[in-house]
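Hi R.,

Here's the chain you asked about this morning:
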Amino acid sequence: MGARRGHEYLEGLNDDREVWYGAERINVAEHPVFAGSVRGMADYFDYQWEHQDDCLFPSPDTGDLISVAHLRPRNDDDIARRHRAFDRFARYSVGMLGRTPDYVNVVLAGHVSRTDLWEQASDPKYYERISNYQKFVAENDLALTHTIVHANIDKSIGELDGANADLTLQVVDRTDEGIVVRGAKLLATLGPIADECYVYPATPIRPGYE
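And the predicted structure, written out as tokens:
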């Protein structure tokens, strides 16, 4: 598929997501309270095509044009290429939007690039999974939001201790279809109008809390 245009992003929002505004469940693609944000994001996707020489590059896997935010630099030229793209992306909003899709794309690309850390994992399947996910996000040009803060109600103790431990998002079961989780994660800035949530800790998990 490769890089999307604005109308494709808007179509993707009509996925029956559950978003509440006060006591009302709303369709974020149509509700007036989100109209400006949704239009601005759609224009962002069109903008990357208007400046494709700066913002897009051929996917190493498919040859389709994808966002330069997914480029994993391997040399000086790649770093310069990304600099040019991010400079162009920032100019879309005069630097006022901190949560355009390129933001989390870079985080995900960075996580995949740290092969030295993944080699320390007990099973190579973990790197395989995140690598495949990064390719999926890149090839489908998804808009991700991070969600990175542990939920907690007792500020007098650690965010993973006592009553807070029951609130923290955690895996409670594993099935053939995937994992089952319980709990909550906070700070999903782009959540209502993103395609998916990318869940990871904002800071390293303390030993013993894995």
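The mean pLDDT is 93.

Let me know if you need anything else.
M.
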